[in-house]
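Re: the request from the purification team.
They wanted to know what the chain is likely to look like in 3D before they choose a buffer screen. I agreed to run a prediction and write the result into the notebook, where they can find it.
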Amino acid sequence: MNILILGGYGTFGGRLAHLLAEEERLTLFLAGRSIQKAKKFCEGLPSGAQKVPLFFDRNGDVETQIKEINPDIVVDAMGPFQVYGEDPYRVVKACIANGVNYMDLADGSDFVKGVRQFDKEAKANDIYVLSGVSSFPVLTAAVVRKLSYDMTCVNTIKGGIAPSPYAGVGLNVIRAITSYAGKPISLTRNGTPATGYGLTETMRYTICPPGYLPLHNTLFSLVDVPDLKVLPEHWPKLDSIWLGAGPVPEVLHTMLIGLSWLVRLRILPSLLPFASLFHLVINILRWGEHRGGMFVSVEGTDQGGKRIERSWHLLAEGGDGPFIPSMAVQALILNYLTGKEPSPGARPATQELEVADYEEIFKSRTIYTGQRETIADAASMPLYKRILGEAWDALPAPIAALHNVISKEYKAEGIARVETGKHPFARLLAALYGFPQAGKQVPVKVSFHRRDGGELWERDFAGRKFSTFQSEGKGYADKLVIEKFGPVTFWMALVLKGGELHSVTRRWNVFGIPLPLTLAPNSTVYEYADGDDFCFHVEVKHWLMGLIVRYDGKLRVVN
């Protein structure tokens, strides 16, 4: 198969080329305005597919250029599709004229919806024209179908993408965003067409596949994506839809929101002239975790009229996240190679893939997904079960048994080995908080008390007692366990890996004052099973004083 990728060495086209580079059945024509850049890019790709660098000017005679190349598929990855000029569909028209299949990674809502006007011509030429073949709207539509499988009515759709600060945002992406920042955006609210304003409408959300380390609670701003116009066509009873982006660092995002308000208030005509400056700033001033994610939340009703709220979460570690927008094209091409070719016609690509198609590709990368559902009587459930969601079922039985705190009081007993620090300040802290004294066979008793929606943990190490109160986080601490320890409060994520349940500190404060995580005690806390025994390991250090306390041992529930 011969595939012509317009913008083949650019941000999204280049990532698509990397995704397809090792497929020996393909010939990739990587095209753009610079043949030198195309050649250099081809040289850096892994072996497998044949790579051909090409000069291509989409402002020139597009029809003749495509005819000379004679590809099986044209993939337009150039953009920005929001500002494609007076004849935005010239590549589509050229493909139809040459009988060549077409896909694009368009993120402009008007462009994607408008491609239906070529449906008859595409069918007459026995080709397919698929627009918006990217995360928005292909992946979101597939996720909504997955989440609403038993819903008779979908009322609300919300979603967002949170890229890593190191994702490497291209200039055309920034141009697309600045073209609609502060400008009116058509969407659905209260069951009727309505108007939002780009980037000036915000919400906060925590992306957290059950059992994985969540992203920090993220600020999302309204973006103009195809979903806003094409998803209501599939769910006509939809009451409202909202899609956002959550770039970090948040301080830069907040500044962009403020500038967008200047456009909304008509103090500035547009932010588009500043696109190059924004592109420079966002690719220089970047810090934070090299991780990204995505979420889709759906509310609806079942046949009995019961309200259902479900959410789907995606987490991408390191450099894998930026490839996700190009994976829809990859999946369609891989399906084509196995004989699953899209049907002729021109349309948004919302029905072409399912979540399972993506999951096959995710397996080879550090991309993790999971689903959560809001439970009406969640307050009656054990604390850890509420936070872990579906990951609770993957816990080893002894860990689940110990955290299955559903009665007012729950007890466990066992033994532990304890080590204490030698630094004077470490000894002082241990004495103040009642940490256990050193010993090899120290008897341990732990009592769990349900109280105010949380759990009071009382620990007794051979008469040395200390307690903490754990509760479910809300707001900025959503999807986290809040553990109060005297004047100190820790925000902890529950992470399940290799059969071990880890508690990972995400934030902390003293007397309610947030402090940098670099100043916090360095704790290693995890639980695991040894046969029928619940085992624990707790180690608390600080860079100023070294070891404060370390204890590990076994417990068994006694009531």
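For the purification team: DSSP finds 16 helices and 27 strands in the chain.
Please add any questions underneath this entry.
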